[in-house]
Amino acid sequence: MIEFDRVVKYYGTHRALDGVSFTVPDGCVTVLIGPSGCGKSTSLKLVNRLLEPDDGYVRVNGRPVKSFAVEELRRGIGYVIQSAGLLPHMTVQDNIGLVPRLLGRDKAWRRARARDLLDLIGLDPHAYARKYPSQLSGGEAQRVGVARALAADPPILLMDEPFGAVDPLNRETLQNEFISLQRKLKKTVIFVTHDLDEAVRVADRIVLLQDGLVIQEAAPEELLGRPSNAFARDFVGTDRALKRLGRFSVSDYMSHDTRRVGTKDHASVPVDATLREALSRILAIPSDEISVIDAQNRTLGSISLEAIRRAGCGGESS
Amino acid sequence: MKARSSHIVPIVIGLCLVFGSFIFSVGFREMVLRALFPATRELIYLRTGLPHMLGEHLSLVLLSSVLASIAGFSLGVFVTRPYGREFLPLVRGLSSFAQTFPPVAILALAFPVLGFGFRPTVAALFAFGILPVLNNTIEGIESVDASLIEAAQGQGMTPGQVLLQTELPLAAQVIVAGIRTSVIINIGTATIGATIGAGGLGTVIIAGLVRNNTAFVFTGAITAAGIALATDWLFSRLELVFFNPQDGVRSGHDSTRHSS
Ligand SMILES: Nc1ncnc2c1ncn2[C@@H]1O[C@H](COP(=O)(O)OP(=O)(O)OP(=O)(O)O)[C@@H](O)[C@H]1O
Ligand SMILES: [Mg+2]
To answer: Are B75 and B130 in contact (CB under 8 A)?
Structure first.
């Protein structure tokens, strides 16, 4: 668990963080989001002590980060940044093996680990282990950045706009890979982004910041359903109800009654899709109901506009 | 790349042979000079042998350049550390001011203080040779992307590891270029040392100027130029060996490598 306890941070006379408190539960993805300059990166760097707070505490597992030896602390926290931050004079496998090397792991172990991780992040070890960062695409470099952060198997990951420099299509792929990776690894993650769609997709919890203050700390559904003030409402936008539907799975709201599905149109929605996708597909057909299919194209039941509307209303304040 | 260097090797060997004969064989030198300066009677400077002057010259340059490189590099690293950074503007200002000094002026300033001979010349060459190394060390280190350094720190590198494993490898090429400039300049400047009795290739050049003997001037100048070229070539080989054209440090060479 990571706690921010009334943290204040100044740059000169500029107050970047103005008494920030929030909690990052273990094994979850907590997203820090807010407009540019609100203090997201600053908050992240306070965890691995690239910056020191002027007041307040940052605690990891109840222990103030100040009480750790700084290099030891950092070797136990994976750090991924927007430009990937790979060292250009080292090969991919040496970049991935960097923290294990600092921890004294031998070469054979590091090679094997780099290959395993390349596999894990979907890059062919034979083709990529010996490449240099300049020979990678943006998306590949980001993947390697994630692999490097995972190399020493740290319980905590700090990710500062890890997919920010990647085009939208690749970004979505990387997000999905990250989500399934996190499902396996269950790291304690602080994920910084200013893209609300990305936040809604990857977050278990969202901390919304503005000018160095926490505006709202909530589950994504709650932030979208009940933004706590005018700024939050503005930030989540007028399509927040739609975005919120993106958090719900068709499988939780469908009817399993296969007899009700008409055969006059062939439109259908996969069972693992979100309600947002289901809604979009229903709107494209004349019917108020659409069949739900599994990966083998078998019809499992249906989902209705009414069911989606009810899901969307749940928890809505206005 | 391969094909080009295989053409270059015989040329280099040939040039070395000609150049070596010119220096070490008096007969060959006399033959060359006679062809170039048929009107001159005294072609060979007899007071000191050319190999001896070359030896003096090389020790002047070697000693001053090694000392200058160590000093310039250390100072450059110091002023880019957190504890030395407050001196950075001062050092930068001083070194760009000092670079406007002609080397002769430094020598002229050095000899009243340090006297005649080898040591004041080394001192002057040292002082002058520091600047390119210092400037390039500072620029090389400063040009390393700050976010890269932060990433290295974020992975848990100690300040020493950040310096040795991130900053210096990425700045190395620029630093070596500074050393190269410094040595080449020193090879030329060291000829002036003869005016205050340090010996070296300047001896024969000065003698030629005094006696209006172009063959003498040519002998010293061509030898100095030869070792300057040879040194430059050695540095370029060194860079090829040490800076793998594959890595990001020289990513510009990527395309040529893959297209061949
Ligand atoms: N090194 C620094 N020196 C001075 N001011 C800084 C420094 N770093 C950040 N700031 C200021 O502190 C504030 C918070 O910066 P921070 O980098 O945390 O923002 P951010 O939320 O990460 O923004 P972005 O989304 O643009 O990355 C900004 O106003 C920024 O201008
Ligand atoms: Mg930022």
So the answer is: yes
Question: Which ligand minimizes its atom distance to the CA of A16?
Answer: 1
> B178 lies in a domain?
yes
Distance CA A303, CA A257 (A): 10
Question: Is the confidence at residue A159, as pLDDT, over 70?
Answer: yes
Class of domain A245-313: alpha beta
CATH topology (fold) of A2-239: Rossmann fold (3.40.50)
Mention every residue, 6+ apart, whose C-beta is less than 8 A from residue B84. Answer: B78
Tokens (6 digits) for A19? 């008494």
- CB of A110 within 8 Å of any CB in chain B? no
Question: Which 162-181 residues of chain B touch chain A by CB within 8 A?
Answer: 165-166, 169-170
Measured in angstroms, the CA of B225 and the nearest CA of chain A are apart by 35
pLDDT digits (tens, 9 = 90+) for B193-217: 888 888 899 999 999 999 999 999 9
- Overall number of domains in chain B: 1
- In a domain? residue B20: no
CB contact under 8 A, A85 and B148: yes
Structure tokens at B168: 């210096």
Range of the domain at B248: 60-258
* Total residues belonging to chain B: 260
Residues contacting A182, CB < 8 A, separation 6+: A29, A189, A202
Determine contact: B160 vs chain A, CB below 8 A: no
Taking alpha carbons only, the member of B118, B97, B98, B91 closest to residue B197 is: B118
- Beta-ladder partners of A70: none
User: What confidence tens digit (pLDDT) does each residue in B61-103 have?
Assistant: 999 999 999 999 999 999 999 999 999 999 999 988 887 888 7
What ipTM describes this predicted complex?
A: 0.81
Give domain limits for chain A. 2-239, 245-313
For residue A176, the distance in angstroms to the closest alpha carbon of chain B comes to 25
**What is the tens place of the pLDDT at every residue in A185-198?**
999 999 999 899 99
Of residues A313, A308, A241, A311, the one with CA closest to residue A269 = A308
DSSP-assigned beta bridge partners for residue A8:
A18, A55
- Whole-number pLDDT of residue B160: 95
Pairing of strands A299-304, A188-193: unpaired
Q: Answer for the pair A301, A291: CB distance below 8 angstroms, yes or no.
A: yes
Phi, psi of A35 (to 5 degrees): -65, 165
Query: At A88, is the secondary structure helix, strand, or coil?
Result: coil
Out of A36, A42, A52, mutate this one to test ligand 1's pocket (max ligand atoms within 8 Å of CB): namely: A42
Angle subtended at Cα A190 by Cα A184 and Cα A192, rounded to the nearest 5 degrees? 120
- Cβ distance A154 to A210 under 8 Å? no
Q: Are B218 and B203 in contact (CB under 8 A)?
A: no
CA of A90 to the centre of ligand 2 (A): 26
Is position B174 within any domain? yes
pTM above 0.80, yes or no: yes
